[in-house]
Amino acid sequence: MQLTPDQTRSFEREGYLFFPSLFSAEETRVLTDAVPELYARREAYNVRERGSDAVRTNFAAHLLSAPFARLARHPRMVRPVQQLLGDEPLYMHQFKINGKAAFDGDVWQWHQDYGTWLNDDLMPEPRAMNVAIFLDDVDEFNGPLMFIPGSHRKGVVEAKHDTSTTSYPLWTVDNALIAQLVERAGGRQGGIVSPKGPAGSMILFHGCLVHASGSNLSPWHRVAVYLSLCAVSNHIRRFKRPEYIAHRDFTAIECLGDDCLLRQDLVDLPWQDGMPPSALQTSLDVIEGATA
Ligand code: SIN
Ligand code: MN
Q1: Residues in Cβ contact with 45 at an 8 Å cutoff, skipping those fewer than 6 apart
Q2: Is residue 289 part of a domain?
Q3: 173, part of any domain
Q4: pLDDT tens per residue across span 103-118
């Protein structure tokens, strides 16, 4: 899949691209069917909502589940990211399956992902891309993602480490700055956008794009996969967060065939029999090659 010049210009201007129904219902079902068993596991990589058993986010499924390992190497997802990041080899920095469960799915406060990648992981530059792939239909009721178009052009904005609003710590942007950014982006006329569509849709969005999502009070789940791909040369320089959250294997992703989700090809699943103890170890040491 080759992006058109119009699409690349639109990405540069708005900070995101939306591809409705990029994956077929059959392809999406392969992924959706693998989620309940992953969410049922009592493991550190399943972060549950505050005061509920619902999974807020599941980490690293691409290292232990074949369907998600295939998605992590899918050319329909990897190639456009590669094109937007200047055709560099990419590695998987983070892989999440966010639950946003019916009735229980909590908010994600306003933030930029690169704020966390910089502050926690010492990723040198925002040469990394976020990808969201819907495993359920997303509408205005089940907590869709919200973007402030063009906010990525501000670079890294001030953020505070919020460890109490939800069950998952996040570097968040304060309300006054959000109000300013929304106003500058057009206020009520397009200052906030919210791509919605069927399961199988994909969004690419810049690591500095300011985004959030509300809670899910609807009776419909909003499961979505969030992948963060980073240029190999821009790998993180510190292992402050556990490896199941911020990956330490900087090997370049090699794409599979376009039909990989519907095939049973073997894929490497290094954590299939459990996470290595080292994946839980963290350190504040800066590793070699640091520029941040
Ligand atoms: C995120 O920003 O990482 C997740 C947002 C969401 O799941 O709505
Ligand atoms: Mn985010």
Answers
A1: 58, 59, 60, 244, 275
A2: no
A3: yes
A4: 999 999 999 999 999 9
